[in-house]
Design a protein that fits this description.
heterodimer, A: 262 residues, alpha+beta, 60s Ribosomal Protein L30, Chain: A, 7-stranded mixed β-sheet, 4-stranded mixed β-sheet, 30% strand, B: 504 residues, 4-stranded antiparallel β-sheet, 24% helix
Chain lengths: 262, 504
C-alpha cells in the first residue's frame, strides 16, 4: 500500500501546493528503521537507530499513555524532534515523537537488549507488573457537561498510524461522538477522511495511498451506525488531495474528522 | 531442595465414584456442598438455601435428547465438566448417557454410537462440538462478509468436510470443539460496571448489547463472546445442547438465570494447605469469598489485587509438629505461587488484543496483565485474546513422524486474509488455527484464535484446561505458558504456581 516517492515528484499530487524539495528542518528526525527494545531494572525502553545514531522513543507504560510503543517484527516510522534532554537508555531523546509500525513484516527487527546498570529510565509511572492503583497518565473525568439548546456542531479528530484504519485508541473518541450525538439528538454526521504523507529526513516522501482517505471515512460511518447511531444521516467523504509534507508533525495529515450536526 | 511438593503428587487421588448429577433426579441442591477433587474439596454455595430441583429448568431434561443444563454443568466439576467425570459416566452408562448425544457429544453426528473412537474428543479432552454458521451473522441475522476464507486442512472428526454438517453443506457450518465453562460465580462474568465502553478499547468495534434493554454487555461469556446475555445464552444452549426445538419459556429462562446467579464455587479444602476458609486466612480463597466479593473491579494493582491473599501465609512459624509444619510450608508455597502469578515478569509477545492495544510488542509484564479481574482472573471487559491456545505455532497437537501411530486429534483450518485489510500484525495473511474463536463471530482477521479468558476458580475440579482441553493438568498449563513466552520458570516457581492455582 505504501508508496515511496522522491520529494520532486510530490508536486504531481500535492493539492495546489508548491513542491517542497527542501529536507525537513535540522531538528527533525523522520525515518523508517527497526525498533529496538532495551530491558531495564524497571520498564523496558524503546529505541531506534538511524544513520549510526541511537534515538530514544519512549518507555512501556500502559494504555493511558500518549506513546504507543512499536512492534518488533516490523520496522517503525519515526517522526520526532531532537530535544536537548540528556540521553535515555543510551539514545538521543526525540520529543515530541510519534511512531507508527509499518504493516509489512521485517523479521530482522528482533533486537531485545538486556538490562545494564548504566541505563535507567528516569520516569516510570507504571511498573512492569501490576500498577499501584492508578493508570500511568490517569486523567480526572471531565465534569458532566450541561448542554442547552441551540446545540453547536462539534468536531472530533482521529489520527492514524501509517496505512492503518480504525485502531483501539480511537474508541474513547468514538464514545464521545456517540455520547454527544445522542444527548443533542443529532440529525447528521459528516466524516471526512484524509490520507497522509511524511517528508523523511533523507528528503524522500512516504505517502499513503490516497484511496485510504475514503476508506477511513466509510469505516467510521459504518462503525457509528452499528454502534448506536443507525438512525442518523451520514455523509462520508475523502478530503481533496493530500497535504504537502514539510517534515514537521506530518503525522497530523493521517486523519479523519467527524462532525456531529445538531 | 525444592520446597513443597505439589498436592497432586502427594495424594493423586481420583474423583470419588458416582458424583454424577443426573437430569431429572429431583435431588435438592443443598445450601452448601462439598465435592472431592484431586487437590481436596470444592465448595459450592447456593444463596437460595436448600433448593428443590424437581421440575427446575436447569435440572430437568427440557429438550428431546434427555439432557439438562446440569448434564454438562455438574456440581462435582465446579459447574463445568471434568474428563474424570465424563469417563466415569461413559463406563457407568456403557456410553448411553444423554451426555454422549450425537448432536455435540460425538465427534460428529454421522459417526457410530457407543464407539469410544467416535466420542474421542469428549472422552479424552472433555470437548463438546460447537457448530456455527459460516459466514457469521450479525445480531440482525444478516450475513457478515468475512475478511478471510477458510480451508479445512485436517478433519480428523470428518465433520467439517461432511456433506451434511460441513462447510460445503447446504447450510455451511464450521465445527470447533470446546470445553464447557463454569455456570457459577456468574455475577463476575456478567458484571458490566468496569471497562465496558460502547466501542471496544481493543479495536474500536461496537460492543455487544443486551437485545432487550439495549444496555452494553462486557463480552466475557463463552470462548467467542457470541452470546451477549445469560438469557440469549440459555436459549441457544437449549436449542443446541438440549435440542429443545424451540426457545424455553420465559418462566424457564428466569428459573435458569436465577439459579445460575445464586451459585458460587471455589476450592474450600486443600490436601496441602488445609482449610481455605479459616478466619484470618487469605481473603481471596473459598466459596464465601466468591459470594461476598465485589464485581467489576480491576485487580491488576497492589490496592485491590486479582486474588487478594493478605499476609496470613507469607511467613509462618514452625512448631515442630510435623503435620502443622508441612501445612505451613505448603501455605507459603501457595503464597509464593501467587507472587509468581502477580509479580513475575516475562516478555508477552505476538498476542493479539494485548500487544497491539498501545502496550507494544513485546511487553514486559505478568500473568495478571491479561488475567486482571478481581476474584476471577478474567479480563475486565472484552476478554478475548490470542494467547496461542488454538493458533499455530503454539497450539498443541500430536506430532507426526514415522515412529508414531498417533494421529492429529483436532481439526485444523487455514485462514487466508484478504488484501483489503491490513494484515494481522503478528501472523500476516495466512493463519492456521484449530479454533478461530472470536473470528467465527466477527469474520475479522485480527480476531483469529482470540479466545475469551475464563475464570480460574474451582480449577482443581475441572481438568483439562484451555478451550481445546489441550492442557491435561495444571502442570501442562504452566508448561504451555513457559513455552509460549519463553518464561524459563524454575522448577520451584512451577510448583508454587501450581499449588497456588489449585487453591482457587
Amino acid at each position: 500500500m505504501m508508496k515511496r516517492i522522491s520529494a520532486i515528484a510530490i508536486a504531481t499530487f500535492a493539492a495546489g501546493g508548491i513542491a517542497n524539495a527542501e529536507p525537513p528542518p535540522e531538528s527533525q528526525r523522520n525515518f523508517v528503521s527497526c525498533p529496538i527494545v532495551r530491558d531495564t531494572a524497571t520498564v523496558p525502553c524503546w529505541l531506534s537507530e538511524y544513520e549510526g545514531e541511537l534515538y530514544y522513543l519512549g518507555i512501556q507504560t500502559d494504555v493511558s499513555a500518549d506513546f504507543d510503543p512499536p512492534f518488533l517484527g516490523h520496522r517503525v516510522l519515526v517522526e520526532g524532534t531532537v530535544s536537548d534532554r540528556p540521553r535515555i537508555c543510551g539514545g538521543i531523546v526525540l520529543d515530541p515523537v510519534v511512531i507508527a509500525p509499518i504493516l509489512d513484516f521485517d523479521a530482522s527487527c528482533n533486537t531485545i537488549l538486556p538490562a545494564e546498570d548504566r541505563y535507567t529510565v528516569p520516569f516510570a509511572p507504571r511498573p512492569p507488573g501490576p500498577s499501584g492503583g492508578r493508570l500511568a497518565f490517569q486523567r480526572d473525568p471531565a465534569p458532566e457537561e450541561v448542554l442547552v439548546p441551540p446545540y453547536e456542531p462539534r468536531e472530533y479528530l482521529l489520527h492514524y498510524d501509517f496505512d492503518m484504519l480504525i485502531m483501539g485508541r480511537h474508541a474513547p473518541i468514538l464514545g464521545d461522538v456517540l455520547d454527544y450525538a445522542t444527548k443533542i439528538g443529532a440529525s447528521r454526521i459528516e466524516v471526512v477522511g484524509s490520507s497522509g504523507a511524511t517528508l523523511l529526513s533523507d528528503g524522500s516522501v512516504m505517502a499513503e495511498d490516497t484511496s485510504i482517505a475514503l476508506e477511513r471515512a466509510n469505516e467510521i460511518a459504518e462503525i457509528l451506525k452499528s454502534g448506536g447511531l443507525g438512525e442518523l444521516a451520514f455523509a462520508a467523504a475523502a478530503a481533496t488531495g493530500q497535504e504537502e509534507p514539510d517534515g514537521v508533525e506530518d503525522w497530523r495529515s493521517r486523519r479523519a474528522v467527524i462532525r456531529v450536526m445538531p | 531442595m525444592l520446597l513443597g511438593c505439589t498436592a497432586s503428587s502427594v495424594l493423586g487421588q481420583t474423583q470419588a465414584e458416582d458424583q454424577w448429577w443426573a437430569p431429572g433426579s429431583g435431588l435438592p441442591m443443598p445450601a452448601a456442598a462439598r465435592y472431592p477433587n484431586p487437590y481436596g474439596e470444592l465448595g459450592i454455595l447456593n444463596t437460595a438455601g436448600d433448593y428443590p430441583t424437581e421440575g427446575h429448568a436447569f435440572f430437568e431434561p427440557i429438550g428431546s435428547n434427555g439432557r439438562a443444563c446440569v448434564t454438562c454443568h455438574q456440581p462435582a466439576s465446579a459447574m463445568g465438566l471434568s474428563t474424570a467425570l465424563i469417563q466415569q459416566r461413559w463406563r457407568a452408562s456403557n456410553g448411553n448417557d444423554p451426555l454422549f448425544a450425537a448432536i455435540d457429544g460425538r465427534n460428529c453426528p454421522h459417526l457410530p454410537a457407543n464407539d469410544p473412537e467416535a466420542h474421542s474428543l469428549l472422552l479424552e479432552r472433555g470437548l463438546i462440538r460447537i457448530f456455527l454458521p459460516w459466514p457469521p451473522r450479525d445480531p440482525g441475522g444478516n450475513a457478515i462478509e468475512p475478511e478471510f476464507t477458510i480451508e479445512v486442512v485436517r478433519d480428523p472428526t470428518g465433520c467439517n468436510t461432511h456433506p451434511e454438517y460441513g462447510l460445503e453443506s447446504t447450510e455451511p457450518t464450521i465445527s470447533v470443539y470446546r470445553r464447557p465453562r463454569m455456570a457459577a460465580n456468574l455475577k463476575y462474568v456478567t458484571a458490566a460496571d468496569f471497562g465496558v465502553t460502547p466501542f471496544s478499547i481493543k479495536d474500536s468495534r461496537p460492543a455487544s448489547r443486551d437485545p432487550e434493554t439495549g444496555r452494553l454487555v462486557n463480552m466475557n461469556m463463552l470462548a467467542d463472546a457470541r452470546e451477549p446475555t445469560l438469557r440469549t445464552q440459555a436459549i441457544s444452549a437449549a436449542l443446541t445442547h438440549l435440542e429443545t426445538g424451540g426457545a424455553p419459556s420465559d418462566a424457564q429462562l428466569a428459573e435458569i438465570i436465577d439459579f445460575e446467579m445464586q451459585i458460587y464455587a471455589a476450592q474450600a479444602q486443600h490436601v496441602g494447605a488445609g482449610n481455605l476458609e479459616e478466619p484470618g486466612g487469605p481473603p481471596a480463597l473459598g466459596p464465601h469469598a466468591m459470594l461476598e466479593g465485589e464485581t467489576g473491579v480491576l485487580g491488576n494493582n497492589t490496592t485491590r489485587y486479582v486474588f487478594p491473599m493478605g499476609d496470613a501465609w507469607t511467613s509462618l512459624e514452625r512448631s515442630g509438629d510435623a503435620e502443622a509444619d508441612a501445612q505451613n510450608e505448603f501455605r507459603e508455597s501457595v503464597q509464593r505461587g501467587h507472587d509468581v502469578f502477580f509479580f513475575r515478569t516475562f516478555w508477552i509477545s505476538d498476542s493479539m488484543h494485548i500487544n497491539n492495544i498501545g502496550l507494544g510488542n513485546p511487553i514486559k509484564r505478568t500473568c495478571s496483565t491479561c488475567h486482571g479481574m478481581h476474584m476471577t482472573g478474567m479480563d475486565t471487559a472484552n476478554g478475548f485474546v490470542d494467547v496461542g491456545s488454538t493458533n499455530l505455532p503454539w497450539a498443541t497437537e500430536n506430532e507426526q513422524n514415522p515412529w508414531t501411530e498417533k494421529k492429529p486429534e483436532m481439526p485444523l483450518f487455514r485462514l487466508s486474509c484478504d488484501n483489503a485489510h491490513a494484515p494481522h500484525p503478528f501472523f500476516g495473511r495466512v493463519i492456521y488455527s484449530q479454533d478461530p474463536g472470536r473470528a467465527l463471530i466477527t469474520g475479522r482477521c485480527n480476531d483469529i484464535g482470540s479466545i475469551v479468558m475464563q475464570q480460574f476458580r474451582g480449577i482443581a475440579s475441572r481438568a483439562p484446561y484451555l478451550t481445546n482441553g489441550s492442557a491435561k493438568n495444571l502442570r501442562e498449563l504452566i508448561d504451555f505458558y513457559d513455552r509460549r513466552y519463553n518464561i524459563r520458570y524454575s522448577e520451584q516457581e512451577k510448583i508454587d504456581l501450581e499449588n497456588f492455582l489449585s487453591t482457587l
